Amino acid sequence: MKKFLIMLSLILSASLPAKAETISTDNSDFVLIDSVIDDAAFDIRYYSKNNFTGNKINGYHAPHAYLTKEALSALSKAAEDLRTQGYRLLIWDSYRPQKAVDNFVRWINDPNDNGDKSFYPELKKSDLLDGNYVAAKSGHTRGSTVDLTIIKKDGSFVDMGGTFDLFSEISHPDYENITDEQKHNRQILHDAMVNAGFKGIDSEWWHFTLENEPYPDTYFDFDVR
């Protein structure tokens, strides 16, 4: 009887649906980054044409950057750590509406629009989705992911050996064919972010997600204003 009950429990558990992803337009847990980190700089690429599509992206109505309260609290710790080392943050993207991600997918599937090929010089456009360079569901849309780099306190450039959204092996955090200085600069950013509670990915040195993100199954779709 006991064995039967165990088997029944396993069957019922297997038949239960996985936790569903949800779409939300509730922005009540989101905060502007510059309201907390007042020395951060911003270059919100999807508000401009300076991105791989060559066009401004749906959902970006202002050059602003939002994160969940939890992610921003952690990011402020990273910013303080970097500040003591003589750096400040430059933000390229953070919260990203689902409609923006949908815009990316439509662009990839449009054979008549190559966008800005300088962002994917070695790839076909179709490779961007097939190779997971662009995802139909992005961690950015959950509100606790940020794309960023470091600059010096006076705003001057810090060489990372590659630029934002360059879809290439050069962008891998462990890419070897860059200078020791560029590797060192990438490590400074990585260490500050990881020590503050973020995790990176193996394809983009600039991309970090809060380890304990508050909305792991929710994708938001309110506009950036």
Description:
There is one protein chain. With 225 residues, this protein is an alpha/beta fold. The chain is 27% helix and 16% strand. It has a five-stranded mixed β-sheet, with helices on one face. A two-stranded parallel sheet has the order 1-9. Strands 2-4 form a two-stranded antiparallel sheet. A hairpin with a 6-residue loop joins strand 7 (198-200) and strand 8. The longest helix has 16 residues, at 69-84. The N and C termini lie far apart (61 Å). Mean pLDDT is 92; it is low at 1-18.
**Oligomer type:** single chain
**Mean pLDDT across every amino acid position:** 92
Strand content range: 15-25%
Structural class: alpha/beta
- The number of strands is 9
Largest sheet: 5 strands, mixed
- Based on Cα principal axes, name the global outline: globular
Distance between the termini: 61 Å
- Helices and strands, in N-to-C order? HEEEEHEHHEHEEE
Number of separate helices: 5
Secondary structure elements and their pairing?
Blueprint: H1 2-15, E1 22-24, E2 30-32, E3 41-42, E4 66-68, H2 69-84, E5 87-93, H3 98-108, H4 127-130, E6 145-152, H5 180-195, E7 198-200, E8 207-210, E9 218-220
Parallel strand pairs: 1-9, 3-5
Antiparallel strand pairs: 2-4, 5-6, 6-8, 7-8
Helix pairs in contact: 2-5
